[in-house]
Write a structure and sequence with these properties.
Strand content: 35-45%
Structural class: mainly beta
Order of helices and strands: EEEEEEEEEHHEHEEEEEE
Distance between the termini: 20 Å
Helix content: under 10%
Number of strands: 16
Shape: globular
Number of helices: 3
Radius of gyration: 17 Å
Length: 224
């Protein structure tokens, strides 16, 4: 029986035998703040969701995102447009951290994430430039852990800027995730051993970290 699509305002559904796509209408009521402040805002004349990390959370790579309600994701594609600004109160080590958390469990105690550091990509320091993208898994595999055990494997350089819209696409299949920016044919980052393992599933969140004023729009999820 064909689903009556008009009963489901959150979905723009594109069917094929193996593909189910959802274009998420990002509004405040469709999001659950987790370690963050979430609001609807306008930037450069565009309406978007604004996410800022709760300032009481001092550690990095924590559960600090706007969780999309009613979504369970395992494998497929996540696409979204993001813009990252530095808050006036941002500390010196802020880099405009912004990205996507996925495979979030019910109580937000486990998830995986890929995020960007746009300020690093604009730096004259080559080591910082090499750290423009990042994968981590919460709670046991933060960026500090990967730099100790596998330096450079879970982060990479890619061209990007603060205060500018960036289109990101994350493709998850099995234990692998690939990050693509701005429609480029080659991935900016490849993670071949997702730490939550093959078959992991859970929610999706709009992730930010310290010092970031993050904006998100045009979220599309394709489960495969």
């Amino acid at each position: 029986m064909m689903m009556n699509l008009y009963k489901y305002p959150l979905l723009l559904v594109l069917f094929s035998p193996a593909l189910f796509a959802q274009k998420i209408l990002l509004t405040e009521k469709d999001l659950e703040p987790v370690g963050s402040y979430v609001s609807e805002g306008t930037i450069e004349g565009v309406t978007a969701i604004r996410v800022v990390k709760d300032s009481n959370i001092l550690l990095d790579d924590e559960a600090t995102y706007a969780r999309v309600k009613g979504i369970e994701f395992s494998e497929g594609v996540i696409e979204v447009k993001i813009l990252s600004k530095l808050l006036i109160t941002a500390p010196e080590h802020a880099r405009g951290f912004i990205g996507i958390a996925f495979h979030i469990n019910k109580d937000n105690s486990k998830f995986e994430a890929i995020y960007l550091r746009p300020a690093n990509a604009m730096s004259d320091d080559q080591l910082r430039r090499n750290r423009s993208t990042q994968y981590f898994a919460y709670p046991d595999f933060k960026f500090t852990d990967s730099r100790k055990t596998a330096p450079g494997v879970y982060e990479s350089y890619e061209d990007m800027e603060l205060n500018k819209w960036i289109s990101i696409k994350i493709i998850v299949k099995g234990r692998q995730a690939k990050l693509y920016l701005d429609g480029r044919k080659e991935p900016s980052l490849i993670v071949s051993d997702l730490k939550l393992g093959e078959g992991a599933k859970g929610g999706i969140g709009l992730f930010v970290d310290i010092g970031t004023e993050g904006y998100f729009k045009d979220l599309i999820i394709r489960n495969e």
